[in-house]
Amino acid sequence: MTATSSGPTHARPSSAAMAGVLPRPGRGWTYALVVAIAAGVLPILVIWWQGTTPSSLDSAGGILTAAGQICGLLAAYLLLVLVALMARIPLLEHRVGSDVLTRVHRALGEYTVSLALCHALLIILGYALTLHTNPVSEAVTLELDYPDVLMATAALGLLLWVGVVSARAVRRKLAYESWYFIHLYVYLAIGLAFSHEFADGSEFSANARNRMLWVGAHVVVAALLVLYRVLVPISRSLRHDVRVSAVVRESPGVISVHLTGRDLRKLRIEPGQFLRWRFLDKAHWWQSHPYSISAPPTDRKLRITVKDLGDGSGALRHLKAGTKVWFEGPYGAFTARRLDPASGGKVLLIAGGVGITPLRALFESLPGGGGSAILLYRASTPADLALYRELSQIAERRGFGLYPLVGSRESSPDPFSPAELHRMVPDLADRDVYLCGPSGLVHAAKRGLRRAKVPARRVHVESFDF
């Protein structure tokens, strides 16, 4: 069922979330996460040292072998961390933010693949030097004569495959579904590597305490994954009975999906957050996509706005009213809780493309009025300004500023130059900035804000990169 947009139909939410009910997310949580991950390296080194005799490091072969062992242990540790980061743990999702977790996950993924590859190469070279054999023949011997090394090789191959498809140049050419399903092979890689660690790793085979700790770590991460990615979503989906009520065309290639449910306030969805949606019809039941809410939620209604990016999102325009929806979330910390108390509630929102989705919900629900919020909306043509009529009504009703920035990337003047930003927003340095849109726009806006001397702690970015 398709209709023409007729303006916002959602009431403004309660301001409880903005009054400090939940902790304010920020860089402190990110630093704490990084420190916690780094702190886990020390026990890994202790485990390695417990199974190492000093005399084994007296030769070049022994040193290479030891380096390979350390790389393998660190790669196994980081694999667990990668899974934990994507387990959708509420403490991390609401304090650190999904975009930051994704960036940390991506960076650690590169280290993990590199460490796993170094582990294999260093072990082969170390053994070859110690036994005075050819590295190629030593590799064959390891594969054929050592237990579960073939499994470890398969795990390394899977990790390399995932690493390749995660490279930016490759990832941009993949459909979201392809990228997502390939990443599921990480779980198989962990299982294969786990068997190898216990069969060939002296750190575990000769130490019962280390075995218990390592098994316990895997059990805890698996339990978190099952709890927050399976059990909680199923429970919430059954309890709140979310269904499609209508599909509305907003602009070329952009639609809004209106949803109904029961007791939706109990989900505590905040404007700016997103959920992962699974529409249970023949075409979409096997897909799960992350979409932000595009209007403040009520106890009975939700709305998401989706752009056709060629990854299955375009097919959502064919959804039928009554289609049942399962979901995960809410996720993300791109909310009003990020506001710096020192800014006095003054906010600048910068959106481009479908990045308007979370900012549309924030624009209506932010505290304050009378110019406390200004929205800069970048688009190539006027037709690309999705939800603009709603934004105009909100701006008029609440006294907010709204500036459409229409034109090509090569248009002059640059809307994100310091001079233009200060012209449109004279008190720019005193505002919190919420930024969401395509990567090119995000980079240009961040560069302009940095040159305009906006403190980095006040620039909050939501990224749609996967």
Automatic annotation (TrEMBL):
- Cofactor (UniProt): FAD
Under the heading SUPFAM superfamilies, the entry gives: Ferredoxin reductase-like, C-terminal NADP-linked domain, Riboflavin synthase domain-like
CDD domains hit by this protein: FNR_like_3
Named from the GO MF annotations, one term is:
2 iron, 2 sulfur cluster binding
Q: Name one Pfam family in it.
A: NAD_binding_1
Q: Topology versus the membrane, per the UniProt entry?
A: Multi-pass membrane protein
Q: InterPro entries recorded for this chain?
A: FAD-bd_8, FAD-bd_FR_type, Fe3_Rdtase_TM_dom, FNR_nucleotide-bd, MRET, OxRdtase_FAD/NAD-bd, Riboflavin_synthase-like_b-brl
**Would you indicate the residue range of the signal peptide?**
none
Q: Tell me where the transmembrane regions lie.
A: 28-51, 63-87, 108-129, 149-167, 179-199, 211-231
Which key words tag this protein in UniProt? 2Fe-2S, FAD, Flavoprotein, Iron, Iron-sulfur, Membrane, Metal-binding, Oxidoreductase, Transmembrane, Transmembrane helix
Q: Which domain of life is it from?
A: Bacteria
Q: What would be one Gene Ontology cellular-component term for the protein? A: membrane
User: Which residue numbers delimit the FAD-binding FR-type domain?
Assistant: 237-337
* Subcellular location(s) of the protein: Membrane
* Family annotation (Gene3D superfamilies): Nucleotide-binding domain of ferredoxin-NADP reductase (FNR) module, Translation factors
**What protein name is recorded for this chain?**
Ferredoxin reductase family protein
Origin species, per record, is Actinospica durhamensis
